[in-house]
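Consider the following input, taken from an annotated entry for Methylenetetrahydrofolate reductase (Actinopolyspora biskrensis).
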Amino acid sequence: MNTNARQQLQHYLRNARYEVLPLRGALEQAQGLPPGTTVTVTSSPSKGTEATLDLAARLRGSGMHVVPHLAARLVRDNAHLDELLARIEALGLTEVFVIAGDADDPAGRFTDALSLLRGMEEIGNRPHRVGITGYPEPHSFISDQMTIQATDEKARYADYIVSQICYDPNTIASWVKTMRARGVTLPVYIGAPGSIDPSKLLRISMKIGLGQSMRFLRKQHGVVGKLLTRYTPENVFDELSPYLVDPDYNIAGCHLFTFNEITKTRQWAMETADRLQEVPA
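Applying the prediction step yields:
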């Protein structure tokens, strides 16, 4: 890794975004993050939008830069969307992350992230910054063509992209390159699991359909049950380091999926950044 790439990665790790779940104990763990840290709060059908915004408000009160997820399938109509956006603004939040959401049945006319993004434009109420998800690898439940088309269309309404979990750095780099060739120029935050218990990471990987990534790790390390014990986010970022300083790729930073192992993930990020600083030029 050359000096510029090492310094860039160090900067990204020290200023990483942390994704948390609105569950018990999340607020207490997040207190260990320095004020001003970007913390994104997920949304789920079981907890609902209320839990997301409640934790967002508490984190905002602790001095964090908070980005609530807005799940399209939990929003009933334009009036409900306008109400949610007004509440977000009243909380002093200037950024949202728009997702489709995991609800089996949509609450109203918003069935996916694109329809919600269009709804925000229709009502003329848009936060200062809006993020969307990008998929480096084919999804097990969604066709590759659909994810490509959705990314291209969503990009018209967004300010940045966060990549879904992918364990193969070559796939991530290829995805960004291909996206740039299609004319999508939004900054990309590389999404990676933080310092997560391997068994939990395996369950999550299977749930969200990371088939290609799992095959990559199996090829590298063998049996699936053992492969994630060898995974570290450092491997992904180290392999991606040449692209971090390539302006054509426009990589904006790191987005760490903590699954509420916030303390461990923050500790890993800081220790890795310190090690990068100690490497002689």
